[in-house]
Specification:
256 residues; 0% strand; mainly alpha
C-alpha cells in the first residue's frame, strides 16, 4: 500500500473532518484514496460506506436536534432510494466494469463540487422548470437513481442529491444539508448491507478488521470537523481541493 495503513488513516481523518464540517460523509474521497492505495476493488465500497455511516451518524443527530430534518418532506426521496441502494450493493461487477463506473462517478462528483457554488446562485434566481421538478414522481425517481449508484460504487449519494435540491430550490441550504446527511446515512446502511450480502459476511468482516485504523480515523476526524465547523478554511476551498483530488483519481482510473 502506497500510503501505509496509518498514513491512509490520517488522510481519512482529515477527509472526515472537512466533510463533517459541511454536512457530508466523504464517501467519494474515501473511494478515491482507496483507489490510489490500490486496494482490492471489491473491498472499496464496504470500507467507504462504513466510513460514511460513522461520519454522518453524528451529523444527522445534530440536524435532528436542531429541528432541520423535515421528515414528511424527506420520505418521498428515501422511499425507493433505500431498496435501490441495497440492490446496487448486491450487483456483481467485474473489476473493469466497476472501475469504469467508479471513474465516471468520481468525475461527476468532482465536477459537481466545482459547479455547486454556481448552482446555488442559479437556484436562488432561476429554479428549474416546476412542471417536472414539482411532479410527485420527481423526488422518488431522483432518490432511486442516486441510491442505486450509491450502493454499487460505495458513495453515499449526498454529493449528487444536494446540487439537485439546491437548483430546484427544494428548501433552504441548511435543510438541504440535513436532507443530504439523512440520505447518505440510510443509503450507506442499505448499500453496505447489499455489499456484505454479495461478498459474504466473512469476507466483508475481514476487510473491516484489516482496515480498522481507517474507521478510528474517520470517527475522530468527524468529531473534530463537527466541532470546528471548518473555521480554518472556507467551505469553497474545501470543495475545490476535494474536487481536484477526486478528478485526479477519476482521470487515473479512466485513462490509467
Amino acid at each position: 500500500m502506497a500510503f501505509g495503513i496509518f498514513g491512509l488513516a490520517l488522510l481519512f481523518a482529515l477527509t472526515a473532518a472537512l466533510y463533517a464540517s459541511v454536512g457530508f460523509g466523504g464517501g467519494s474521497t474515501y473511494i478515491a484514496l482507496l483507489a490510489l492505495a490500490e486496494l482490492d476493488y471489491r473491498a472499496l465500497p464496504v470500507i467507504a460506506l462504513l466510513c460514511n455511516i460513522i461520519v454522518v451518524t453524528g451529523g444527522t443527530l445534530r440536524f435532528q436536534w436542531r429541528g432541520l430534518i423535515d421528515w414528511p418532506k424527506i420520505w418521498p426521496i428515501l422511499l425507493l432510494s433505500v431498496p435501490a441502494a441495497w440492490l446496487g450493493g448486491r450487483m456483481v461487477l467485474e473489476q473493469q466494469s466497476f472501475m469504469l463506473l467508479l471513474g465516471l462517478s468520481l468525475a461527476a462528483a468532482g465536477l459537481l463540487l466545482i459547479v455547486e457554488p454556481f448552482i446555488k446562485r442559479a437556484g436562488s434566481e432561476d429554479p428549474l422548470d416546476r412542471r417536472w421538478t414539482g411532479h410527485r414522481l420527481f423526488a422518488p425517481a431522483t432518490g432511486t437513481g442516486i441510491g442505486f449508484l450509491s450502493g454499487m460504487v460505495g458513495i453515499g449519494g449526498g454529493i449528487f442529491l444536494a446540487p439537485i435540491l439546491l437548483l430546484t430550490r427544494w428548501s433552504d441550504s441548511r435543510r438541504i444539508a440535513a436532507t443530504a446527511s439523512v440520505f447518505i446515512l440510510v443509503n450507506s446502511i442499505a448499500g453496505l448491507s447489499g455489499q456484505l450480502m454479495k461478498s459474504g459476511l466473512s469476507s466483508g468482516g475481514e476487510a473491516i478488521l484489516a482496515y480498522w485504523p481507517l474507521f478510528v480515523g474517520v470517527l475522530l476526524g468527524g468529531q473534530i470537523g463537527s466541532i470546528l465547523a471548518s473555521k480554518a478554511l472556507p467551505e469553497i476551498w474545501i470543495r475545490r481541493l476535494t474536487a481536484l483530488l477526486i478528478l485526479y483519481v477519476a482521470v487515473r482510473i479512466l485513462w490509467g
